Predict the 3D structure of the following.
Amino acid sequence: MVIAVDGPAASGKGTLARRLAAHYGLPYLDTGLLYRMVARAMRDAGKDIHDAEAATVIVSTFDEKAFAEDSLRGREIGEAASVVAAMPAVRKGLIDRQRRFAGQPGGAVLDGRDIGTVICPEAPAKLFVTATPEVRAARRHKELAGRGELATFDGILADIRRRDARDSGRSDAPLKAAEDADILDTSALTVEEAVAAAIAIVDARRAG
Ligand code: CDP
């Protein structure tokens, strides 16, 4: 079974996708990390993040094993990732490895922005995870503080609004719920409540 989990920044989709993968015994891919790797590789090569030609080369040559996950999770790389993610050549260059992952026998859980709409439109279970910008900013603030990154709540809220606008406004694979997705608003839910709701949604989809 393939489970697609999409949603905006800091909506809780990563936590939910990981928990769903553990619950159903499926492999898990955080597709945001792929875009973050491209952004990181651009930075490491000294390229301007808006240089689409350089990004086109990097997306076909970067080595997934070359990056420590911790070097990808920062605030600045998230922002840079959303810039390269708007480039059609970057999105195209990452499609095959995502579909290969999803095509494993038994299935997989993938989280991102366009899993249910573009990467795995046939997935039997699609969750679109949302929360208000304020709740998402508070979550991201806590996560970054845990990593020792200093940032104000207002600065993070501004980041989130800018990223939402960029991710939803791009012409290629914009962030949006698939027509057959189940929307899960986690604003007022604890992690355990959100996990229980997500499992209930997937079980209902599996039951047909
Ligand atoms: O954790 P957070 O939601 O902040 O970021 P992420 O999921 O790691 O994604 C970083 C950026 O990559 C997003 O803002 C998107 O622009 C882009 N992305 C995408 O376009 N498509 C995906 N399937 C995953 C991420």
